[in-house]
Amino acid sequence: MKIPFSLPLIDSLVEKEIHSTLHETGWLTSGPKTKELEEKISELSDTNFTVCVNSWTSGALLLFKWLKLEPGDEIIVPSYTYAATALAVINSGLKCVYVDVKDDFTMDMDQVAQKITNKTKAIMPVDLGGLPADYSKLLSLLDSESVRSLFHPKTDFQKVIGRPLIIADAAHSIGAKINGRPASRFADFSIFSFHSVKNITTGEGGAITFKLFDEGKDFQIYRELKVLSLNGQTKTAFEKNQPGAWRYDIVDNGLKVNMPDINAAIGLSQIKRYEKDLLPERERIFEFYNSVFQGKEWAILPPMEVFGRKSSFHIYLLRIKGFNEEKRDRVITALGEKGIGVNVHYIPLPLLTYFKNSGLNISEFPVSYKLFENEISLPVYNGLSQESLKVICENLSDEVEKLIRK
Ligand SMILES: *Cc1c(COP(=O)(O)O)cnc(C)c1O
């Protein structure tokens, strides 16, 4: 029996939506499907507008460009994340400032407080594994008089906000909740990823969603982000295609990061049944794992809900008490030989060559290392069978217990 770590959901409903793109609208690049996906994301996130793009990464680059951030401006990110979080900051010419995480894998807001300077323009927490970061604590910190008076706005938008922005790296957390409300309501901007391994996928893709002001003002921001995502062109190909509407202008040195309809179709078929079917199925998988591992003295279960912050059940981050990297890796190899795909999320940034070479030292991020050294991510995806779950749990337990007995 072969159990892959991750499988995108491809079924007859996905095929139906793609078929509709190919044969009903006949429109492959950004058009009606992308627009509908944007509306569905806003609905799910309780936000005013959503801009779909071709990856989380290009969404971050696009947003930093729209914000007119400049060299010298600082963005604070956690050390425990996928590299894209920091690389988007670095590739925008900005200074990336790192803080450690807490035991629930999310950003340590007390350390954020110590790292804020008069150059800090944004904080980018990561909802790791799907668990929303502590946005309430972050917001009260950013809203404090000491942070507001330190803030040095350079653009009109920054003046209006009056404090560093909260930009959520929500690559894992579409559908996550805080006190029963979509987590996106607790950040200024949230950026999702629809890469093939994420909860909802478009093959490759991403989206920026927000509710900052009233609908009129937010529509203006939406329009500007859309224009900036399409070479700075005032009309989309779809709009230009309308009778007599050929003339366009280029009003900015935009990027080219729009999401094609053929991709949007895949995500659209998934988001339509996400809250009702797909997300609850992921939750049941987490609960199954919990039911097995809570009886194991060696298991440290991943957080599913912490003080009202409820996960979107993206990655099951199991930890093995007392294990180090070497023992953890042996478990992974043994499972791999049996055809069971597991993974590690993530190697902390300071352990990766590029970040090490730029001066990061893991000794300054002890919690990241502690979480990483004994972490094993287990398969979680729609369509993962009960039988597979049992095989995973039995084999994992066997391998761990074998090593404990040694
Ligand atoms: C996947 C991921 C990204 C990057 O998403 P892309 O769509 O591949 O650009 C960023 N941050 C985190 C935490 C991720 O897991």
UniProtKB/TrEMBL annotation:
Q: Which InterPro entries match?
A: DegT/StrS_aminotransferase (IPR000653), PyrdxlP-dep_Trfase (IPR015424), PyrdxlP-dep_Trfase_major (IPR015421), PyrdxlP-dep_Trfase_small (IPR015422)
Q: Which domain of life is it from?
A: Bacteria
- Give one GO molecular function term: pyridoxal phosphate binding
**Is-annotated flag, keyword NAD?**
no
> Its GO biological process terms?
polysaccharide biosynthetic process
Tell me the residues on which N6-(pyridoxal phosphate)lysine occurs: 198
Q: Does the keyword NADP apply?
A: no
Catalytic machinery residues:
198
Q: Which UniProt keywords apply?
A: Pyridoxal phosphate
Q: State the Pfam families in the record.
A: DegT_DnrJ_EryC1 (PF01041)
What the record says about family reads: Belongs to the DegT/DnrJ/EryC1 family.
- The name under which this protein is listed is dTDP-4-amino-4,6-dideoxygalactose transaminase
Natural source organism: Cecembia rubra
